[in-house]
Design a protein that fits this description.
Layout (H helix, E strand, L loop, with lengths): L3 H5 L10 H15 L4 E6 L2 H11 L4 E6 L7 H22 L4 E4 L4 H7 L11 H20 L4 E4 L9 H12 L5 E2 L9 H11 L11 H6 L4 H11 L5 H4 L6 E2 L2 E2 L2
Parallel strand pairs: 1-2, 1-4, 2-3, 4-5
Antiparallel strand pairs: 6-7
Helix pairs in contact: 3-4, 3-8, 4-10, 6-7
Length: 256
């Protein structure tokens, strides 16, 4: 596997890193070697999954990892998890790809402990960085446990997320595990515009806030209404029952 740190040593220390270009270089190496690696890609919702899957599935085998205990309230978390599964299933049916899905346990108290003391930080500040680290750490752990070649994040698709920060966190997490981080800046090359188009094509629910209770309150989001709408949207729906065919299987065991 390619260690991104090796590519970074070849550029000037004061040069801003183009993570999209790094990804393209890595893909070129895979293609030259005739290799199709396995990637565990963390996603926060269906919209951020769209273009990232469309792009990476050309070159690698992807499993979507939904680990987002930062999302509040629980009903909204369940809605986003379900919508992600619905998209993966529809994407596979339309494209012939075989993207799998893993959902991590919802542990909001664990997230709150991680960001304790940072509750009043502005969106995009230190609380967000800790949140990136929290979720990418889980992704790296899972990638190592399940023998994936790389772990990655689809968060860089958002124009509201700092790709430099996300990739820096990914590299820092990589140092703790015997696995490799995959760089990205999916908003490049009209990636964000394509994600919006795909949301229309697949009729995907697009949420109005990132996810955590702190940012939602700062934005004036009506969380009571969000919960009500999410509960209504989830009536009669169960991701495990509705989409068992996309569940990731490892050593003969299907993961929840």
């Amino acid at each position: 596997m390619i260690d991104m740190t090796e590519l970074l040593t070849k550029q000037a220390a004061d040069q801003k890193v183009n993570y999209d270009r790094l990804l393209q270089k890595m893909i070129a190496v895979w293609e030259k070697a005739g290799r199709r690696p396995s990637i565990l890609m963390h996603v926060c919702c269906a919209p951020c999954s769209t273009y990232a899957l469309e792009y990476l599935c050309q070159y690698a085998d992807i499993t979507v990892y939904f680990a987002n205990s930062n999302i509040h309230p629980k009903a909204e978390y369940q809605r986003r998890a379900y919508e992600t599964q619905a998209f993966v299933s529809a994407f596979n049916a339309k494209t012939g790809h075989e993207v799998s899905f893993i959902e991590e346990a919802y542990q909001p108290n664990e997230y709150k402990q991680k960001v304790r003391g940072l509750e009043k930080e502005p969106e995009g500040g230190d609380r967000c960085r800790v949140c990136f680290d929290y979720r990418l750490d889980k992704t790296a752990q899972k990638a190592l446990d399940l023998a994936f070649d790389y772990f990655a994040s689809a968060l860089t698709i958002s124009p509201h997320k700092n790709a430099q920060v996300i990739n820096t966190v990914g590299l820092e997490v990589q140092k703790l595990y015997d696995t490799h981080y995959l760089p990205s800046d999916f908003k490049k090359n009209n990636g964000y515009r394509r994600s919006v188009e795909m949301c229309d094509e697949y009729d995907i629910y697009r949420q109005c806030y990132c996810g955590c209770v702190y940012a939602a309150k700062a934005q004036g989001i009506d969380l009571v209404q969000i919960k009500k709408e999410a509960e209504q949207a989830m009536q009669g729906k169960d991701g495990q029952k509705d989409y068992p065919h996309i569940r990731f299987s490892y050593n003969g065991q299907t993961l929840s």
